[in-house]
Amino acid sequence: MARMSKQHRPETTDCPCGSARPLAACCGRYLSGRAHAATAAALMRSRYTAFVLGAEDYLRATWHPAHCPADLAPGDPPPRWLGLRILATTAGGPDDDQGMVEFVARYKVGGRAHRLHERSRFARLEGRWVYVDGTFPEAGGTN
After folding, report:
1. pTM of the full structure
2. Distances (CA, A) of 69 to 21, 59, 65, 85, 132
3. 23-142 maps to which CATH number?
């Protein structure tokens, strides 16, 4: 399903989502299509990992089709993702149909450090979690 960066070996590399588990036992199983995220938070973590690894196919597959942008290009130069911190979750559990995950993702572009603070909305679509959209608390906007 998704392509993985050659520099990451899922069997031995810690998952970029910050779980301290091997990629293959954590988000790698979602990116490979072997499993589907049971919660909105698990999908959030796997999508962060997909951004780190450049797994555009996975990002598209887990984005609500009504909200998925035509171009997912991160920019030039692309960001170098540094870490993810989940701040809060609302609903988004195995028995829910909607959920929210608030997070901060740190990254660098051109040697400058940045942070993305977002409240992401998730919904179940045909039994699977998908990313719908998000708001940016510090900027007051949506994407």
Report:
1. 0.87
2. 31, 11, 9, 24, 11
3. 3.10.450.50
